[in-house]
Amino acid sequence: MLNKNFYLILIISAVFGISFWIGINVNLLPAEASINAPIYDELFKILFIIGLVIFIGMTIAVTYSLFKFRKRKDQLGDGIALEGNLSLEIVWTIIPSIIVLIIGLYSYNIYDRMGGMKELNHSHEIMTSNTEKIWAGISQASNNDVISNNLSVEVSAMQFAFLFNYPKGEFISGELHVPVDHKISMKMESKDVIHAFWVPEFRIKQDIIPGQPTILNFTPTKVGKYPIICAELCGPYHGGMRASIIVEEESDYKDWFNKNTKTEVNL
Amino acid sequence: MTITIDSQDSKNKSLQPKGWLRYFSFSLDHKVIGIQYLVCGFLFYLIGGTLASAIRIELASPMSDFMPRDVYNQVLTLHGTIMIFLWIVPVVNGAFGNYLIPFYVGARDMAFPRLNAVAFWLIPPSGLMLVASYFVEGAAQAGWTAYPPLSITTPQSGQIIWIMSVLLLGGSSIFGGINFIATIIKLRRPGLKLMQLPMYCWAMLGTSLLVVLSTPVLAGTLILLSFDIVAHTGFFNPVLGGNVVVYQHLFWFYSHPAVYIMVLPAFGLVSEILPVHSRKPLFGYTTMVFSIMGIVVLGLVVWAHHMFTSGTPPWMRLFFTIATAFIAVPTGIKFFNWVATLWGGKISINSAMLFSCGFIINFVFGGITGVALAQVPFDIHVHDTYFVVAHFHYIVYGGTVFIIFSSIYHWFPKVTGKLMSEKLGIIHFTLTFIGFNLCFAPQHWLGLNGMPRRVAEYDPQFQFVNQISSSGALLMAISTIPFLVNILLSMRNGKDSGDNPWEALTPEWLTSSPPPVENWEGEAPLVEEPYGYGKKISQEN
After folding, report:
1. Do A81 and B533 touch (CB under 8 A)?
2. Using CA atoms, how far apart are residues A209 and A187, in angstroms rounded to an integer?
3. If we measure between CA atoms, which residue out of B141, B132, B144, B30 comes closest to residue B82?
4. Fewer Cβ atoms within 10 A, N terminus or C terminus of chain A?
5. What is the separation of C-alpha B87 from the centre of its chain, rounded to a whole number of angstroms?
6. Which is higher by pLDDT, B1 or A169?
7. pLDDT tens-digit profile of B35-57?
8. Could you report the per-residue pLDDT of B115-142, keeping only the tens digit for each?
9. B308 or B351, higher pLDDT
10. In Å, how far are A257, B97, B209, B212 from B177, measured between CA atoms?
11. What is the pLDDT of residue A114?
12. Residues of B in contact with A119 (CB under 8 A)
């Protein structure tokens, strides 16, 4: 009996060990380029490890039973008439409930740190909050909120392109240029069908819904060029609806901005 | 109103064609209707599978070079619609439900045999209509979700035919649901208590409740959408002041429960198959019943987790996160109970058993990614990407379709009196299991790294992983060949199975195989312990 328990403990610790090792060492996500990204990846890592423990554990249990309890040629009759075990069933109701509850509270915490729980109804919050917001206010977004912010951009999405209007510079660009480590505030509007604004390296996505101006805030942290991807089916050329976001040093951004302000249009 | 089968029905039955012709007739026999559902569903599965292969061929290269872009969108729309409404829903509910439920409750037919036949005969014409819409100005191309305003702006005829077809299929589903509820509640043999029913009855009772509660909402939504398209009303059209997010709420109020309509019957079927082949009682019958009902209740209040990026308010996101994650608890109970059913059994490793165990492994994986997707901050990044595509194929293919195959291997001797070839069955399982995981596991990575769903073209950096996925799809396509060969060969030359080849204790095996028209020669047997394995032997000895 002691021997049996010893093996059980050995297997369980091996499952945990392997899961933690994979969870910590295998990176499945693209580069982290915004304030949101490391917070997201922290949540991902935890969910990944918990998922691995459950998946590896269940797979071992199923394959072990198939092997260990397979019917041998000389065997007749049935298995044991075990119809249930109340205490065991209570255990595997309560433990998953606790795990799910902890995951829920933890992801609430993550979501709050991303700025998701803040309502956007009041204009001052947009200005004062240092965290980026992944939740976008619907229709309450007023023009004043966006225009009063120096680093604000108006995004129009249409079949099959994004256009970026810089109200301060009075020009429109097909590429989104932003300075690194500054909070960017975007007001997004769709001209026709539903589109979505997704930057995988920023771990943010927001649908752009016709008839509902939407605000999206983010803070890039790494200089580079990243894709902006439309993630909502919007018609035949949906797969080609792409743009680029160029995150650059503040001086480079200013040069670019000043250059375009003079020429008015850069398309 | 009393529900009895009047003598008129039995007279009509005798007038109906015998032999294979009855499968093409307006038969009132629940067994014939069950097979009609299954074969019709499988033919549509072949069409849907062909469309899936076309998608994977297109995605084997980063450029959109295999078919025109608008045709690609039609293909993905038809693929989704056919697989859901014409293959999985009719087969796990209609086919197995019709064949098994009357046996399980000890009845000679369903409560409403004519309604039953009508429900089936709505399916072939609406399915053909849907496929034929491709030849009229092109099929619908707004995805199976048909989100406005895209569905309002794409060519009208395809979208309208799509709506009519889905309305008819929804109607068929509601007729079926009413019939199952009536049969399970009112047609039970005297002396048979609810808590003695085989688990599939409970699964079908829960599923039918979901069908009856949520399908009318989809019907209403699609009727409003068709008004927007044809009569230029403004329910969902933002140009006329409509609200597109309202459509999404209404659509998902049906379409999330639809996932449980596809999955709960599979939970029921696997609960029938595992005890028989492991020679052990189903572990924890009562908790299984309560977890089915728990999933039904929770399943109705989680729909907005499909809309986390649509601009829903924070409180709503929080509520739907927690409600969704909690579905993992009753679902988890069921999986632990199934593993406990295997534990200590005398397991025959055959095709039915392998597909059922494959189902457990695939579904656990899909369930884990499901709990992750329920978390708003997690979902924000992967919503509408290949991660989601991978997740729901693990649920509906790795879960439900594996169980459909398992059930076909398990009940084939019941229907035909012949055994299927185990050799071909194991080849079929191996190809399907490897092909499926090769096809869908890499798609998780694609989604996380920036490939959105429903695209015909993608970044060249994703080509290699997409080709792995496409080669998995090829294996899946090949795997249907040994299955079809097995079915056809076994039907002609299969070994005689006898009445009860698995020595099962559930009522459908306590009559001849194939069963007589009236199901039992004499009285229906009273089966108080459908899972009494291990007990019977000890009593006899």
Report:
1. yes
2. 12
3. B144
4. N
5. 7
6. A169
7. 999 999 999 999 999 999 999 99
8. 999 999 999 999 999 999 999 888 999 9
9. B351
10. 63, 10, 7, 6
11. 81
12. 313-314
Q: Which tokens sit at A9?
A: 């403990």
Q: Where residue A122 falls among pLDDT bands split at 50, 70, 90?
A: very low
Contacts of A85 in chain B (CB under 8 A): 283-284, 340
| Cβ proximity of B62 and B123 under 8 Å | no
CA B54 to chain centre: 22
Residue A125: other Cβ atoms inside 10 A: 15
**Residue A144: predicted pLDDT:** 45
ipTM of this complex prediction, to 2 decimal places: 0.91
What pLDDT, on a 0 to 100 scale, did the predictor assign at position A3? 77
Tokens for A157?
């999405």
CB contact under 8 A, B143 and A233: yes
**Structural contact between residues A152 and A185, judged by C-beta atoms closer than 8 angstroms:** yes
Higher-confidence position of A195 and B9:
A195
pLDDT per residue as tens digits for the range B447-484: 999 999 999 999 999 999 999 999 999 999 999 999 99
In chain B, positions 372-411, which contact chain A (CB-CB < 8 Å)? 372, 375-378, 380-381, 383-385
Q: Would you state the structure tokens that stand for residue B167, as one six-digit string?
A: 């309305």
Each as own residue / partner, the long-range contacts of residues A62-65 (CB below 8 Å, 24 or more positions apart, any chain) are A62/B339, A62/B342, A62/B357, A62/B360, A62/B361, A63/B357, A65/B339, A65/B342, A65/B343, A65/B345, A65/B347
Cross-chain Cβ contact A229/B450 below 8 Å: yes
Reading the block at residue B177, the tokens are 């649901």
Q: Mind giving me the DSSP string for A101-165?
A: HHHHHHHHHHHHHTTTTS---SHHHHHH--S---S--BS---HHHHHTSTTEEEEEEETTEEEEE
Query: Sign of torsion, CA A145 A147 A150 A151?
Result: positive
Domains, chain B, ranges and CATH?
25-540 (1.20.210.10)
Does the CA dihedral B160-B164-B169-B171 come out positive or negative? Answer: positive
| Distance (Å) of CA A261 to CA A154, A157, B398 | 16, 22, 55
Structure tokens belonging to residue B42 = 């499988």
Q: Which residues contact A52 (CB under 8 A, 6 or more apart)?
A: A18, A19, A22, A23
Q: What is the pTM of this model?
A: 0.92
